[in-house]
Write a structure and sequence with these properties.
The protein has 14 helices and twelve strands. By secondary structure, the protein is of the alpha/beta class. The N terminus is likely disordered.
Length: about 375
Amino acid sequence: MPANRSLLRSGIATLAALPLLALAACGYGSEAKDDTAGQKVAAGAKKIDGLDSVKIGYFGNLTHATALVGVQKGFFQKALGATQAKYQIFNAGPSEIEALNSGAIDIGWIGPSPAINGYTKSDGKSLRIIGGSASGGVKLVVDPKKIKSLKDVKGKKIATPQLGNTQDVAFLNWIAEQGWKVDAESGKGDVSVVRTDNKVTPDAFKSGSIDGAWVPEPTASKLVAAGGKVLLDESSLWPGKKFVITNIVVSQKFLTEHPKAVEAVLKASVDTNKWINANPDEAKAAANRQLEADSGKALPTNVLDPAWKSIQITDDPLASTLNTEAQHAVKAGLLKDPKLAGIYDLTLLNKVLKNEGESTVDDAGLGAE
């Protein structure tokens, strides 16, 4: 489902397409803001790899719950000792990839589309996916007065976040599986695919200018709160009801030079995920507190609760599903076959998991040699 920056067919200019197609599934907008307050360093703690700080990026969204809770509860700072955890909150995939490439951040939580884009744009030299974070959290929500069954989607106007983004390709693939035809680039055909920023999709839905949307959380639950009905949960289309929505990436330079720091962040991620899954209600509240701290606005209960339930927190990057998503983009005609070999390096994650007595995870044959 992720689309790539370079190889769209039929005349979309590459430079114009890059910021469009690389937007993370869970992204809103295109500007980043700094959060360098960090956490208090424990007395007597030592620096890791001699580093003064490790710079961590994430999105202010529930699908980045590991990062939100890890910041809020101090897991990252605890693991890094006297090396300060510094944070930067992003609104979109392209800006986070730029920050990773420039060294403005070292490690980031990000969706599959920009991860693939960043990797292929650099000919496999910029980043590695080093861990998983979340699965699910994507739904087709419709106006129940206009659409009562899946077959009723034909002929309707359905929003996706962007041309070629993860949800857009997922919806195009689903349309094709129904035997319907849609031109991927224009969105015209048996279904009108309307590319609409997640920030404005709820208002478009309320006004009736769209009949539904295939969107990530919390946008999906915002539409339900506005009178929509969940017609399809994307997780139902995947084996085991799991597919990647958020991964952890690191710059290859930082991974090579500071493996101990990377391992510390991964340990914090594993510890955070374990705490989230053991304390779901407390974790949900912690994530919402961090959302409020980052954006100035918490999610209301009628949006937070259903959105949280639909997201699975996992250490597994679900590598096979990322590869399947890429092939869906190829099938839709939005992407030429990408070279993904080497995009994963799960060595340190598996070391942490083994030390914690947990099962190791697989890179689906896409690991670094």
